[in-house]
Amino acid sequence: MAVLTARPLNPAAIQCACFVILWIGLLCVNVGINGSGDLGEKLGANQRDFDYFHLALQWPGTFCRRTRHCCPTNGCCRGSNAPAEFTIHGLWPDYNDGSWPSCCTGKKFEEKEISTLLGDLNKYWPSLSCGSPSNCHGGKGLFWEHEWEKHGTCSSSVTGAEYNYFVTALKVYFKYNVTEVLREAGYVASNSEKYPLGGIVTAIQNAFHATPELKCSGDAVEELYLCFYKNFEPRDCATKSNKKSCPRYVSLPEYSSLKMANDGNEVSESALDSDI
């Protein structure tokens, strides 16, 4: 009876077989990702979770005084309905080290998801320009699209899906009404008054028991940031940028709203005071 003996495997053959198996495995993973179109979401699932929230607010008087052209999407061009209080820029998840996540999933913005919120969004979260900001998929779109895809997708572990992200931001904005706090402290829109930066910061500290952060354009307040733990309890923001960006006395400029031409597209001259 013949005895069969196994031939020893060639080391080169073993290496080649392993390479083929690895190549096939990587090909399958790649096909699976491309087929689902959801690479961003898979990456996002493994991304380091954020530490806290920034609620970024814009002062319309500072942004809108630079406007020289009108379009239907520009909140600066609404005449008597133009915003005259802090409006939302975005609700941003951030890391304690000063960095932040962005474009965390492959989910695209769907305007129909927020259709019932459009009234409040147009009033309290308007775009203050005619430009179309970039989205996370190589294109351009609505201001809200940019904010959801870049920042909202990274906060979904707390805020949930698109609709809930916008609802959450609006609720926090209404609860921590910076414009009202400053108005009660005597800090109101004016093209002639200058206010102590320390007084503005103190008024917000007294109201919310947390330190805000401010950004200025010249001496005009451009943005104001409130910071929150992930349960939306107020916390201090970093204050070092206050000294870099804002002088000791700052303004909250008013502006004369631009008006749309009859065709809704014509260039319109600004009636803003550029010497503020």
TrEMBL record:
Write the protein's name: S-like RNAse 28
**GO annotations of cellular component type:** extracellular region
Q: Which UniProt keywords apply?
A: Disulfide bond, Endonuclease, Hydrolase, Lyase, Membrane, Nuclease, Signal, Transmembrane, Transmembrane helix
Q: Which Pfam families match?
A: Ribonuclease_T2 (PF00445)
PANTHER family membership: RIBONUCLEASE T2
Transmembrane residue ranges: 12-33
Q: Which InterPro entries match?
A: Ribonuclease_T2_eukaryotic, RNase_T2-like, RNase_T2-like_sf, RNase_T2_His_AS_1, RNase_T2_His_AS_2
Family to which this protein belongs: Belongs to the RNase T2 family.
Its GO biological process annotations read: RNA catabolic process
Highest taxon of source: Eukaryota
Q: Where is the active site?
A: 89, 147, 151
